[in-house]
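Troubleshooting log. The previous structure file for this entry was overwritten by mistake, so regenerating from the original sequence record. Sequence copied from the archived sheet and checked twice against the printout by T.R.
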Amino acid sequence: SLFTTEHGFLGNKEAGQNIKDSQYKGIRIYSLHGDIKQPTTQQIKDLDVLVYDIQDVGARFYTYIATMKYILEAASLENIPVYILDRPNPTGGLIIEGPLLDRELVSFTGPCPIPIRYGMTCGELALMMRGENWIPKHTDIRVVKMKGWRRKYFWKDTGLNWIPPSPNIPLPKTTLAFPGTSLLGGIGINHGIGTQNPFLQLGAPWLDPEIILQNMREKAVRGAMLSQITYTPRSLPGKTAYPPYKDRLCRGVLISIQEETAFRSLEFTLDLIRVLKSHFPDKIKIITDRFDSLFGNDRLRLYIEDRLSYEELKELIKKDEDTFLQQRKPYLLY
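Regenerated output below.
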């Protein structure tokens, strides 16, 4: 049997779309992104092993790691070993970004109390899930390690071809922007969805890109070049049906990442929100009830609502990042 995640067996289905059970060359494919999100006892009871072999993107709210967690939990109930064929984290293994997820916000888009960008391979994260009691202690995890991967590597350093794991992650560099700019959709900004450059451009009909270029702090744009852009988000079959500001002319900014080691997507996004909040206060509003769970806690919302200072927000994030850097150490394999 085969099991498939969000985006389907070929990774070409739109985000959030229910995936139906299917077949591939006569092999039954069970969907784990439809009516059920965890393998059932009936589906796995006769299996000798489960093998997890999926390319992740290194962001907490990308749902493949939630599916991995659910698979591990299901396997533990049936005492089935899970082989994890480890793969490179395209965001690298050194840089950590974002707050730890509050435990009361654990969900399918936030399965564990980890930062947004956690800098671990799926094998390492599975071991951490078990070691930190986020899954049962007796879960039989067998990580098949990579040969030659180093924590300092980004995708270009691996020499591997990039096969998009989902329609809106077309390039390795997309993964470097995704942990931060994906939050912009929650405050009424188009984050490149509905274009050929998702997460690497942003805009809105009311936005003045010159204000962004003039007011963002130098530290927040390290490793990237910003340029003005005008574009119109469109419905793109297989990618998105209803992008923010669909069919409306947007003005905004194109992000060209020049140095992977220097660019910090969340720092960029937070400073962008600071500028937007200062210059367009009537436009910056949270438009989704999932905003806290995506960010990891309520602190960004409190900042947007003027109940927390920017400096306090940054200090709290830095504290969580430092905590996680120490917490993850026992589980690193490379």
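The domain at 2-164 is CATH 3.40.50.12170 (Rossmann fold). Archived copy saved in two places this time.
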